[in-house]
User: Fold this.
Amino acid sequence: MINWRTALLPPALAIVFAMLLSSVALLISGASPLEAFATMGAQLFEGNTAVSTVNLGIVYYLAGLAAAIGFQMNVFNIGVEGQYRFAAVVAAIVGGWMQLPPVLHVIAILLVAMFSGALYALLPALLKVYRGVSEVITTIMLNSIVFGIVAFLINPEQFGVLHGNNLSTVEIAPSGRIPGIPLGEAGTLFGFVVIAGALGYGYWFMLNRTRFGFELKASGESKTAAAAGGVSARKMTLAAMLLSGAVAGLVAMPELLGRDYVYAMTATQGYGFTGLAVALLGRNHPAGIAFGALLWAFLDRSAVSLESIGIPSEIATIMQGTIVLSVVVAYEIVRRADLAAEQRRVGRAGRNGQPANVAEGGAV
Amino acid sequence: MEKPDPTATTSKRRVPGWARGALWAVVAIGVLSTASYLTDMPILTSSGTSQTALRLGLPILLAALGGLWAERAGVMNIGLEGMMILGTWGSAWGAYHGGVWVGLAAGILFGLLGGLLHAVAVVTFNVNHIVSGVAINLLGLGVAKYLANLVFEPISGNPRESPSVEKFDTYSATFLSDWLAVLEDEQRVVLSDVAGLLRGLVTHISPLAMIALLLVPASYFVLWRTRFGLRLRSCGESPVAAESLGVNVYLHKYIAVAASGGFAGMGGASLVLLQGGADYLENQVNGRGYIGLAAMIFGNYRPGGLLGGAALFGYADGLQLSGGGAAVLALCYGAVLLLAVIVILQLIRRHWWAAAGGVAGAVVLYWIYWTNDELPSDLIPYTPHFVTIVVLAVAAQRLRVPKAIGKQYRRGEDS
Assistant:
């Protein structure tokens, strides 16, 4: 049963609170909040901003799904960041080297990306399961190390080539690209949107309609209870971590196969951390994650237009941080309010409208 | 967190903690001096390396102390990173306006504010500890960037950097330092190595370093030898029991997390206010908060242990900075020696599998040392990160984690 009030009210509250807080910050810095918000809204209808927002949203959506799979099993895969960058650079190198017919080429690149993402998640998973090392710390370390690995692999001595001033991998042949969906004036939508939608459905289906998904959720809720039901928590942790890593491997693919065709030193970073925030915002529900991803992409894009009217673009980052924190706080407040309302309702119903006395379990 | 290995708690511990620490220090120095002699890399134990190690280890040490306070009260603090970032901005701002000590105070204050925010989210609103920590890291970064843009940009002309600020003066124990320098230059086995390492620790020391080092025994005293500390730790072990004995769990958690933020802010200040460090610079914290947390876990949630952890990571960082790839290779060689010691220990204790694992690790490391003349220069800056993972993998099994860590607690509800 979905309780719409508990599902939708908290994000709305959080967004309002974030707007209030950033208004204060804007006022302090001497800018007009109204002007800022108007600019943020208006930029959506200019040029190709709307489509590029959706394109960015697709990337965030994938990152959010990857993080959400971990969350379901109570595993904090902060390593989405490292996993997607590792997968991107490996997939770009392999994709540039391979010569295959059109569709096969794309599939091969995607498989390589998923495999490398899972591989980069394997070490923290094994350490967590067999050595009890917190996955949070190992994945954070691996997130830093991936900078070195990317630099090492893109180095001309290994697999890189110099494009102008920029080091990058070899370009992927046209057979390995995913064509975009042209929308005329508004720009080109990543063709990957179809795959992302399918993944979202697959995620929902896996969690709610398969035995594996049930075991995963059960094990995440209570390891001991699941173990009593014959579900090995170790196996589930490993599976969640590797699945999460495999999905993380796809995060950079929309841009790699739909726009850039090479992975460069200067490729954008930080999608993984965004994914965590987006998954939190969407409460691990595929539709919620989509909403969170679009909101995040919108805020990121509006930073650019804010800069152009002389407002520090960091206000977007502050809004993002505030939203994450206030959304979790808001969920808790609404949950408590619901709980209290429920108790009152039950108390009244049980005694024909009279509140229960203390001996019967009522309030003091 | 996994349950600690039950055999660890039942095994007799005959050697007191300080003696074990001293023993490990002796082993470490022995291994390093042997390695530096055999690989002909005096930089492994030079005074320059240990001086850099101290400077780079300080932020990690302070972050680890911050982690200790929070986690002992049962609150996970991934947000150390964000609090450190707030501390760097605060200290640069304070130091620019009022000198180093004001800078230090401002850094602590800013970190403390971050800690309070974490406490509000985690203690009052029962938000998942890691979620709140991640949010604080985002927020800390955003706020610091925003404030830098607002305040520093008009002065320095660069939104990513503060104007140059005053740094702490440094002091040396002159006679001792000179004498140790003579010893170090003689290049005698072991003796010169010890002299080199010691000399780095008594030359050009800032007051901040002294304070930070003193905070380790101070934290031990407060947390383990006072009534307040006992109560604080009881909140991390069993908040329900603590509450039933009249301890104000919420208050103690608030104090602990705020203190944690203060330490982290001080760690941020130590990045800005030490000689040889940069002024406020975007992304200068660069994961040190997390490494501090790792150092604390490595140190088994104890002050002495985390000092060892911070020294280890500071050393690895200092070595790669001053020695580059060749020095890191020599460190691999040292690790092989250390593993040999550990394997012998495990064999004596009849832990066959652990010994086998140690042998395997040693073979891999020796193979790396033997087949490479030079490590890829792109990967060398990440030496401390590799060391963290390896060390956690080796060390994590005997941890004694506070029992109620990361658990949500509400007054009057059974957990």
Summary: Chain A has a mean pLDDT of 85. DSSP finds 14 helices and four strands in chain A.
